[in-house]
């Protein structure tokens, strides 16, 4: 238990020029420990790398370094086991750890903060945290993509209506529809990878904003902390939160994609559509209506988008107009990122589960695929190909056939040949071959098209990259 830290306040850490302690409101508005304690592991890792470098460069003694490292490891296990008392008087995670270190090892603790500032320290801790979160997001997206690839393979031939304006457009395969999401989440994953590349520079050693006069080795700390290289400009380093904004931006885009999928699941699982049935694991019942199975998980995924977008706008607004370099405004970055990260993780995990568990009603999909004159384009294309009509004329002829079928209350394929020939004499009974939904999808073999053969090529492409 940290016993003496709570009697210390952050004033005592810089107290030289302060006569009295902070007002209670000052303490409340200033403290970030309530949320930045999440950074404890990164803070301690950063401090160990920093102390090791200071000793290597002869800036502190090897004995002091050893004491510091041992003390920091003790603090790490205290926090991990829940035996650490965080103090709001000590403001933030950096000073909570440092004050406890002083209690544990005495004056040597005071040497840790040589050649650094909380400005580069927080930039480091937060970057490390965001980097780990991005790596986790990358793995989760890979799982989600894998779930879709499995469903796409299973349903490469399953026919469903394709929609534009949510009106039946042309038959497509469910496998093709799944692969559309693979493309979206694949782009999300490459945004994650780019974000990792962008932030992979170590801030530590930028100190308050101007660098330091001590002979530090920033390449050494960068390497020890798993960064590609150190940042190149100390002023930019302590004032930059692009890495957090990039995380929020990619999270917002990804969650927008998730919300579209969520919306489709909500629509498809209604009795009116009946395309899919949610598993019990990802739905809830109603307390009053026994027949109901509600898509709560999908609805909540849809709603998380609002929260994540809010976080992105919040941080963009916090950073807008801030003069270089560090300003305390920037302390408000963390809650936005923590909240968005939690929401995104939950949303991806819930979606991965739902996609794997969904029962696909292939009969309902097929029946719907054939309704709404979905093969009208196929009739027009047949007239172009087989009867030599210009497409515009074929479109007109087909429109008349659709109007006739509509007035008779039947599908295009159910119109007698005589009726079709009355509209255009060139039509033969061969036309019926293209009016089925299976023939329609099989014909669309253009690169990226919906034909099962093409969908299998898309699946193979992604399997090799997932
Ligand atoms: N808690 C602060 C933050 O999150 C750490 C940096 C404080 N730096 C300072 N100069 N007051 O931004």
Descriptive overview:
The chain is mainly α and 466 residues long. It contains 19 helices and 6 strands. The protein has a two-stranded antiparallel sheet. Strands 3-4 form a two-stranded parallel sheet. Helix 9 links the parallel strand 3 and strand 4. Helix 7 packs antiparallel against helix 8 and helix 8 packs parallel to helix 19. The longest helix is centred in the N-terminal third of the chain and has 37 residues. The chain is elongated, with a radius of gyration of 31 Å. The structure holds arginine (ARG). Arginine binds next to helix 7.
Helical content stands at 55-70%
What is the subunit arrangement here? single chain
Number of strands: 6
Largest beta sheet: strand ordering: 1-2
Order of helices and strands: HHHHHHHEEHEHEHHEHHEHHHHHH
Shape: elongated
The parts where pLDDT drops under 50 for at least 5 residues are 1-6
Q: How large a portion of the residues is in β-strands, by DSSP E?
A: under 5%
What structural category do the secondary elements indicate? Answer: mainly alpha
Query: What is the first-to-last residue Cα distance?
Result: 46 Å
Radius of gyration: 31 Å
Which molecules are bound besides the chains? arginine
Number of helices: 19
Average of the residue pLDDT scores: 94
Please summarize the sheet with the most strands. Answer: 2 strands, antiparallel
